[in-house]
């Protein structure tokens, strides 16, 4: 696809769209990484085991797989800009469900709210990722997505601390105390704990609705991804479906595995720290460590891509670091082991920014559908953490991290050769 043909009219004013999309990525990060607190919080409030608690991640991320095809239709009907507003409103509805869920301490309602939030995010991700990819030259797409990643992970670092301060206050003492309480008194304590999420989620609802209105009223330009330039028409001649692009199919698998390991690095670190004997009062800050490492990686991407290093080479390095840090977490203990999980943020940082341009650039009229497929790949964040939770129950939370090693091997292969499959 000719990037300049799509962006001639916005080249001089691209700062404004980038700022708006940056605000969206901040919201993505804030809502998404609240899960790292919700997992240990709901484990206590709803009396769950490891496997059950990681259904938080499953309910949230499986929405990407279920809803991504509908996301493409939504964008065809509403366009990119208005589609983003629709996604934000759906997220607000999901957050609203948390209020009755907290009042009744009903885990199924929490999961429903998370699924609806994930559904709204599926629309937003389907729109915003190709948007920021197309909003400029393909070779610097990873740099622009890295800027978005900083917005995302800055929010992802703040969200667990803010929510954790509210809902995990005195959680260690509460956990010890309820074990000795009679059933009636225990229910009262757990109901009080559950009610702590009502005010934070009321604030989230307000922010989502206001941002939806601002996006609707903004001057974000529409980008026509259905038109192709001469090169794209030539390379896509005879192509009738996404299955004609083997690099895209492997890109979907890579995205699936990548999001799985990224979510594990961010969402399991608090519970894992607790399993290593570290108090929740301290462990609630650990997600900030993962996010800080990701921000460091994004900063390096902004500085070095594409001037000093190609985005696919950055992806290779990240995959190898992922293997190294996973093994470090498995073979060390306590704060050192937790530190290796946090360092996975650095290993993960430049994978996502590289997958998008390596996969969708040049697809022309197939771009929206390909974007939808990649967003479906975000369901890896649903499946792999649940498998991790089951392994944590069967073995222990530390040995369960072995699941990460083959995932990073696939990511490394895609960076080396997989993204070239089927391309002339």
Radius of gyration: 21 Å
What is the total number of structural domains? Answer: 1
Order of helices and strands: HHHHHHHHHHHHHHHHHHHHH
Distance between the termini: 15 Å
- The gross shape turns out to be globular
User: What is the helix tally?
Assistant: 21
Features:
Growth Hormone, Chain: A; 0% strand; single chain; mainly alpha; disordered N terminus; 424 residues
What can you see in these coordinates?
With 424 residues, the chain is mainly alpha-helical. The chain has one domain (3-220, 229-420): MFS general substrate transporter like domains (Growth Hormone, Chain: A). 76% of the residues lie in helices and 0% in strands. The chain has helices spanning 3-7, 15-32, 35-45, 50-53, 55-104, 107-134, 141-167, 171-178, 183-194, 198-216, 230-235, 246-267, 269-275, 280-283, 286-304, 311-331, 334-348, 351-360, 367-376, 380-394, 404-416. The longest helix is centred in the first third of the chain and has 50 residues, at 55-104. The protein is globular, with a radius of gyration of 21 Å. 56% of the residues are buried. Residues 1-14 have low confidence and may be disordered. This is Glucose/galactose transporter. It is found in: Cell inner membrane. InterPro entries: Glc/Gal_transptr_bac, MFS, MFS_trans_sf, MFS_TsgA-like. One of its GO terms (molecular function) is D-glucose transmembrane transporter activity. Belongs to the major facilitator superfamily. FHS transporter (TC 2.A.1.7) family.
């Amino acid at each position: 696809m000719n990037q300049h043909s799509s962006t001639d009219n916005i080249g001089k004013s691209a700062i404004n769209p980038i700022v708006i999309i940056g605000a969206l990525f901040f919201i993505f990060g804030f809502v998404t990484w609240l899960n790292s607190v919700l997992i240990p919080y709901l484990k206590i409030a709803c009396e769950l085991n490891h496997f059950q608690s990681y259904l938080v991640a499953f309910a949230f991320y499986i929405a990407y797989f279920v809803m991504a095809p509908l996301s493409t239709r939504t964008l065809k009907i509403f366009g990119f800009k208005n589609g983003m507003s629709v996604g934000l409103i759906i997220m607000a509805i999901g957050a609203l469900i948390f209020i009755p869920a907290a009042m009744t301490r009903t885990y199924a309602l929490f999961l429903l709210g998370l699924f609806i939030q994930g559904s709204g995010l599926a629309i937003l991700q389907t729109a915003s990722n190709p948007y920021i990819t197309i909003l400029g030259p393909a070779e610097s797409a990873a740099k622009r997505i890295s800027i978005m990643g900083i917005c995302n992970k800055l929010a992802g670092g703040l969200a667990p601390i803010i929510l954790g301060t509210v809902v995990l206050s005195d959680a260690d003492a509460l956990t010890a105390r309820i074990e000795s309480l009679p059933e009636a008194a225990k229910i009262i304590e757990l109901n009080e704990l559950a009610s702590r999420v009502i005010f934070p989620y009321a604030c989230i609802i307000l922010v989502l609705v206001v941002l939806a209105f601002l996006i609707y009223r903004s001057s974000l330009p529409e980008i026509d991804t259905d038109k192709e330039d001469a090169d794209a028409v030539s390379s896509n001649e005879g192509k009738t479906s996404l299955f004609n692009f083997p690099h895209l199919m492997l890109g979907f698998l890579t995205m699936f595995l990548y999001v799985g390991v990224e979510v594990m690095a961010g969402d399991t670190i608090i519970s894992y720290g607790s399993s290593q004997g570290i108090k929740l009062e301290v462990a609630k800050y650990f997600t900030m460590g993962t996010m800080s490492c990701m921000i460091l990686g994004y900063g390096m991407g902004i500085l070095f891509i594409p001037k000093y290093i190609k985005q696919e080479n950055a992806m290779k390095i990240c995959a190898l670091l992922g293997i190294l840090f996973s093994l470090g977490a498995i073979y060390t203990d306590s704060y050192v082991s937790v530190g290796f999980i946090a360092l996975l943020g650095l290993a993960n940082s430049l994978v996502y920014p590289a997958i998008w341009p390596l996969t969708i650039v040049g697809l022309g009229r197939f771009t929206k559908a390909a974007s939808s497929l990649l967003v479906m790949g975000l369901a890896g964040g649903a499946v792999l953490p649940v498998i991790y939770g089951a392994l944590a129950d069967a073995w222990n939370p530390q040995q369960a991290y072995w699941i990460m090693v083959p995932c990073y091997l696939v990511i490394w292969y895609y960076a080396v050769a997989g993204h070239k499959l089927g391309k002339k």
